[in-house]
Amino acid sequence: MPDIAIVTENVSGSNRIIIRDGEIAVIIRLHFYDKEFSQGSVELQEGKNGVVLKASEDTLEKIKGFLVKRGNIAELAWSILQNEYRTLDHIEAKVEKLQNASIHSYSREILVNIVKIKKNLFYMHRDYIRLRNIVETAIDDNYHRREMRRILRDINEMIEVVEYLVDATTTAIQLMQNTLSSKMNEVMKILTVIATIMMPLTLITGIYGMNFRNMPELYWSYGYYYSLTLMAIIALVMVIYFKRKGII
Fold this sequence. Notes:
Layout: E1 4-8, E2 16-20, E3 23-33, E4 37-47, E5 50-55, H1 57-63, H2 73-81, H3 83-104, H4 108-140, H5 145-208, H6 223-244
Parallel strand pairs: 1-5
Antiparallel strand pairs: 2-3, 3-4, 4-5
């Protein structure tokens, strides 16, 4: 079984297949997520001298745990693509944390993080679709058909996970909006209760503030204290009523 030659070289570009001089080369864009989302491309070449893997030093460092020596380019590609499961697991854990945070609070920082992850998931979904098209073409051409079918199965699973996570980020945004609406409703309820209590008090103040000459209460010695007591009783009765109704 031929060995794999690893070459440290910067590789850029999206998923595509290249056929030149009787040799086949495939560029695969990989995705990584630790604290931040990042991408890196690898190039796999298969020719008379065996399989050659090209990638930057940073990308090689991230996928070294998946570099199982394989006999052909399809087996090596399958091995490297297992990195995507690790990335999806990390993103899923992050989305779950954001969902939990969305239930309890609304903040611009949480919203920005959710939108950023959702954007990254769209990038991953696009890359998986392109890679699936390449693999399906290889299967149609009967190129390493068995291994390509296994890769296709994994890619379809990754696409489903990405779509699930996109829905999860949408749910997180909806939860945050519901949290904001709930808090706004609580504020509006408190303001409504305060305004309702103040309405009869304002009415009493308005009546006794007219100062007409024939108002009998105008010349009461204890008229001021009477009006204050009346307003306090009304406010107390309304507070007790609201508490019994469970409004406050």
